[in-house]
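Ligand-bound model needed. S-adenosylmethionine.
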Amino acid sequence: MSGNLYIVSTPIGNLEDITLRALRTLKEVDAIAAEDTRHSRKLLNHYGITKPMISYWSEKEKVRSEEIIEKLRSGLSVAIISDAGTPGISDPGAVLIKRAIEEGIDVIPIPGPSAAIAALSVSGLSTEEFTFIGFLPPKAAQRQKRLNELALEPRTLIFYEAPHRIFETLKDMEEIFGQRQAALAKEITKMHEEILRGTISEIVDMLETRTIAGEYVIIVEGKSKEAVSIDEALDEIKSLMKRGKGRKEAVKIVAEGYGLSKKELYDRSLVGQ
Ligand code: SAM
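Prediction:
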């Protein structure tokens, strides 16, 4: 009979964020497949767990999956862990899980932390319906294209982003999503944990005076379904112009954000100037 494949969530910073069941599973399995064995050894050493380890990283996912499937078919049980959080969520895991399901092997979740859900839970934004996007393309043109595709999405949006791109990504979001509420969750569960909340522009302003380092999740309000009045839209145009946007650009952002007529907004924004 085949062994079980356990998908084990591990901490996203604070080593205490691991469930009793996850620890028991890691102690009981025959082998642990890890994204980075050296990184995961620190966690395992902390909890006195010594197990044969299999290196399982993105580029080797296919080959390593077959090796792990062989072990599972021979009756051994295997746990997969990633560097942080839940395997398969912007992390390796999906290839192995799909193969295991094809082979009729039991795939058992051992739930725990994921940065996306932790950030969403403290964002203050709607958690009723949300969409996980993960990492955006690193190149500006592709990133902007993807953001444009998401501009009409009404559900709360969850993004992962690397620290060296956080500022440019937020600037693109400001441009494309306009004046929406957002939250930036930095270093969740770690010493320098910080949650910034406000409009995207306010968060960009807050970042100007901060050191950008560590890990970040960006949560953005979905496109508002409520109609805004022309007066509210004109106020937003004024506020964008105060922050340095040209009239044409400000009108474009607000018109696209609320699905209003660019021409009407532009003409009305000139009245009383
Ligand atoms: N599998 C992980 C999960 O379940 O959250 C995600 C892994 S992904 C490769 C790494 C990204 O997750 C980081 O770039 C960051 O966007 C986010 N992340 C991970 N840990 C975080 C933390 N402690 N605080 C904020 N964001 C974090």
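The radius of gyration is 23 Å.
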